[in-house]
Amino acid sequence: MKISFPRRTVAIIAAVGAFAAIGVSSASAASTMPASNPTDYGDLHKTGSLQVFNVTIKGSLLEGNAFTKTVTNGLMGGMGAIVTVKKATSPGFTAYQTITVTPTKVGQVTSSIAAAYATLSGGNFGSGGIQSTQLATNGKSYTVKMAFDEQATNPNLNLKFYLYHS
Fold it and tell me: Is 125 helix (H, G, I), strand (E, B) or coil?
């Protein structure tokens, strides 16, 4: 069966359009890849240039007054961080609080935060939540913003961060 010229032209244009769409979608998928190879935290931890810190802030301490907590790796002149909990503000029925982690500097030892995570555990469902987290691009601070309901038992805030020794 013979195919007419207009039908052949339409089929060719459709095929070219499909190939162009495939090229655009694969190009946009490639742009979401990381700019460099991911950091192997296991190798850094073996060399002693990376330390993992796990800090839990009790829910009963949150939504209250400001305080600071210092954590270290226990070595003389070692790495550590200061966890600062700012006083909660309540412009309405919701209380807001900001928690900041900053690495300490001991003598010549300076550290930066390579990665950080915040999770909640315990408490009543919906009594508190993480609104946002932000790791500074230079690794000098990690900020967690939380919101709390007026009533109920607050959850514990679990912070896990990796300090890189530079």
Answer: coil
Report the C-alpha gap between 83 and 101 in whole angstroms: 5
Condensed to tens digits (0 to 9), the pLDDT of residues 23-79 reads: 544 444 444 444 454 555 555 555 556 788 888 888 888 877 888 888 887 775 677
In whole angstroms, what separates CA 77 from the centre of its chain? 27
Angstrom CA distances, 161 to 12, 52, 126, stand at 56, 6, 25
CA 9 remoteness from chain centre: 52
Q: Are 59 and 154 in contact (CB under 8 A)?
A: yes
Q: How long, in residues, is the chain?
A: 166
- pTM, whole model, 2 decimals? 0.67
Q: What is the pLDDT of residues 81-122, one digit of tens each?
A: 888 999 888 887 788 889 999 988 776 667 888 888 888 888
Give how far Cα 133 sits from Cα of 10, 59, 70, 83, Å.
52, 18, 20, 14
* CB of 24 closer than 8 Å to CB of 30: no
